[in-house]
Amino acid sequence: MQYEAPETTKAAVSLLAKAKGSAYVLAGGSDLLVRMKGGFIEPDLIVDIKRIKAMREVKKTASGFSIGAAVPCAELGENKALVKAWPGVVEAANLIGSKQVQGRCTISGNLCNAGPAADSVPAMVAAGAKAVIQGPKGKRTVPVEAIPVGPGKNSLKKGELVEAIVLPARKPKSGDAYLRFIPRTEMDIAVVSCGVNLTIDGKGVVTAARVALGAVAPTVLLVEAAAKAIIGSKLDDAALDKLGAAASAACRPIDDKRGTIEFRTKVAAVLAKRAAQIAYTRAGGK
Amino acid sequence: MVTLTENTLANPKERVTPTVVHNPGLAKEAFKSVGTRPLRPDGLDKVTGRAKYGADFNAPGQLVGKILRSPHAHAKIKKIDTSKAEKLAGVKAIITAADLPDLTNGDKGMYDILDNCMARGKVFYDGHAVAAVAAIDAATAKAALKLIKVDYEILPHVTDVDEAMKAKAPVLFADCFTEGVEPKPKKASNIAKQTEFGHGDVEAGFAEADVIVERSFKTEQTHQGYIEPHACVASVSPDGTGELWVCTQGHFVYRNHCAMLLGMDVAKLRVTSSEIGGGFGGKTHVWGEPIALALSRKANKPVKLVMTRDEVFRASGPTSASSVDVKIGVKKDGTITAASAELRFASGPYISMWAELGAMTSFACYDLKNVRTRGYEVLVNRPKSAAYRAPSAPIAAFAVESVVDEIASKIGMDPVEFRIKNAAKQGTKSSYGPVYGPIGIGATLEAAKNHPHMSAPLGPNQGRGMACGFWFNFGGQTCTDLNVGPDGSVTLTVGTVDVGGSRASLGLCVAEELGIPYNQVKCLVADTGTLGHNDMTDGSRGTFSSSMAGIFAARNAITVLRERAAKMWEIPVDDVVWEDGHAKATGSGHGNLAPLSLKEIAAAAANTGGPVAGHAEIVADGAGVSFATHIADVEVDPETGRSKIVRYTVIQDAGKAVHPTYVEGQYQGGAAQGIGWALNEEYIYGKDGRLQNAGFLDYRIPVCSDLPMIDTQILEIPNPNHPYGVRGVGETSIVPPLATIANAMSNAFGVRMTHVPMSPPRVLKALEAAAKA
Amino acid sequence: MAVIVSTTVNGDDVQFACEPDETLLDALRNRLGLTGAKEGCGTGDCGACSVTVDGRLVCSCLVLGVEAEGREIETVEGMADGATLHPLQTKFLEHAALQCGVCTPGFLIAAKALLEKNPDPSEEEIRFGLAGNLCRCTGYDKIVRAVQDAAKEMRGA
Q: Which ipTM value was assigned to this complex?
């Protein structure tokens, strides 16, 4: 196995593009090293992106936040401006694994690994985040939900890597939240999860919303029907019931060691309602 | 009668006043060292990273061993081709079952161990070892495993205990005819053994009952979950001698087993136990050690073999999955008229005694006129079931204590009062045979009744439950050496592995007996070459048995010390007594002799007969049985079924708590393991018979944020068979939690959980079913 | 092909050779003889291999040895100042916050990282802060108390 730690994005792209055998990007490594240990993959090349300075930064711009692909999730929780603007995304990022894992893992890696239960992804999808991709043919930007295409499979082409995740600038009277269900209080993979991002008007009526579900389908789902259920409401009980029903209806889960179809479908509704209420409160709704 | 109550309430708001009542029957009443809480002698090394655990040993020139394991639940091994692997550069030895010839000489138990260590013709579970490699490094060994070709003929498998008992189930062994049944069955089955316990006339008892409750329960397989994987370094020389450094609960037993399987003389295999990173019963069985020795013998080099976490789960240690029926009948006044239980335990592929222990412990808490229990050891395509802390008792208690609570509620009796009314006491003929001496079940129940936890207010969606537990405790073969150094410091050498602070406790007992400060005693664990045989640290025997032997060794040393003092003083030895760490002259003739300290006698030893030592070898009979009562407050999220333990209290009889802090630790640790078992831990098998959650990610042991502080209350009902009244304390605390939590859920929501773990999907389903009903 | 890595461990400049796919944990244990960090799982689920890299708490089983180049690593072996134990080490001993002790190095490193960020944590913050470290012996009670007591002492309270 060859290990490279380039200092520029260009060099990283070049290494990946020229690689003959299996090549992997190493950001936090909290997933990659586990797969290597289990013998599921045997990389010929690993490109460590942590020495690329631009990828180690969280930048606040007029259009929002740019989170470098090599920024560990723990740093997101330490960025006060980011926590204030996107608390749901940050809390999702800070639920991945343990404190130890959060010292390494990245939301870009979480996205590119394309796990259906990835914690940060529903929150990012709900937030309308975009992924900035660099490749042999230059730069392109896509909505984050376009990256995972199935369990463990992403849409990146040979030589491409995610350079940063971009979160939009925060609109006034907006809030987001992420909840997941796990059997323990920490350390588990989400059995079902939900990210909600919404905006309200001066009267407390929801004017815009995005609802995303995790671990209930091969990829994270953006559930438009669930968003519609609460847009125009003050998140009253009837709207919440509709939201829950829409969330459950969107579920296409499987029975596995972590949960059953029945359980995931039911709890999706519970989490959607609870997350929406938190987001609503964060937006200033009462 | 409670003699001494010590409180270590975690909840600072509440304090229970200790009640002290002396028991005149106890030889030793006033203690100077025993009962104090000094630092453990091995502690400093453990907080600085210096302590050497199994995987921390290295031998010069060592190779790395790796094991190839079956991916199938049940298959015939048609052929193993190692030729390609042998040609790989850096590979020094490859072994299969052919390198471990059967030397067990008709000993079925040892043959099963051999077969489990390395499959012989057939694999019986996902993870069963089929071959092993020793190579110059891990990468080479891994690569070699991939080059070994095993040709399997896959056979039908069965992993569920109830399925395995059915007539149409695939039979693991064509020569397995149920033991314990007369006449011997004509047809082979997976039921390896049937056992029965009890007394009285159960049918007549049930006929007398006003109310009968009968229920069936299921528990899933759990793992001890020790954080340190099995690890050893084996070194065998061509002259037939060998050394083994290993993390184990019983290096003498490992030595005996390995020597037999390898055809070595016991005396020529020296086994050193490393510091041990948890065992809980899982390190009482040999797993990879015979393989490491066989690899070393073949390669003629030391071989280090460390299991991965995946291997630990797939191929070592789990306890039984079970299904249990319990029936209890009562009079309206709360008298139990009859009780019966049938327990079916998955044993893995080899006969065990786990159902038998379940059958023995089921009703041990109660004074019953009519009782009968029956256990079935059932063979399945899962790894060999191993001991896990009070093996089988938690399973039996889950079923029995659930029914006890339910029936108490049916007749409108308080669950604690109901248990007090039926509790076993001194003189009770236990459900498994023996008549009890002084025991603590009644005292733990009375303490529970009066505990502030019992009357504390509950929050929304919370319920409170309680349950009792029992464990036999064990004594066994024990050998210790006590040596007095020229400066008067004392080395106590024991052969019981220290799994959780016993060296401190043993040092305290010897300091007590010799009348010297704790700091003057150093306790260490000897290797098998320097001490006689010791049974393992199991059955909560470590401190019980080695303290007994240590005290006897100290008494022998005192005899020597008195003789030496007599010599120094030139007076008859009968005129010398040992008091407070000094030899004192008694009688009228030698009034002016100042007492001689142990240090002074030791300093003169070269001129009075040589080094001063004491020795003891005993079978430590008389381990006092142990009882506990637990109380838990559980909060359940009614929308998701997730449970949270809000408050937890353990009340248990310790006989005499030698080092109370470590006794509390045992109570808390056992409770935490029981809570994990109750809520989330389980082996999950796919339809293909393969284990799906062989890792700490999906085998969910409790994490720090899952648990509250665990309050403990130590009761001391002295064990008359131990010089200081000590009972084993390590295991009983894992027995009550499953039922305690189930009872709490029942009290909160009126749902009776009968399937452990009570994981969120199961609880949610039960809540919904109850809401519909 | 082995790679030569220059790094700082517990304040000492060291060099080691390791394979590019070798973990930092293996490098510490097998190349540098620092066996304080333990492998309990190898997959980041138990925390027994906890160390800090440039001050950041990580599982060393999820870090490649080659990544250590130019970094500063701290392990349990570097916690004591000569013969003076770190307050956490002292409190773990006094509270009997260890039984078997195999998880202890990881807990100490994680607790140190926790207290550096949050000198006065609540019980809940301690419990969630240490949730990445599995202990199977103690039920965590005495560990949490030891951390509380150490925090108090370190604050000079």
A: 0.98
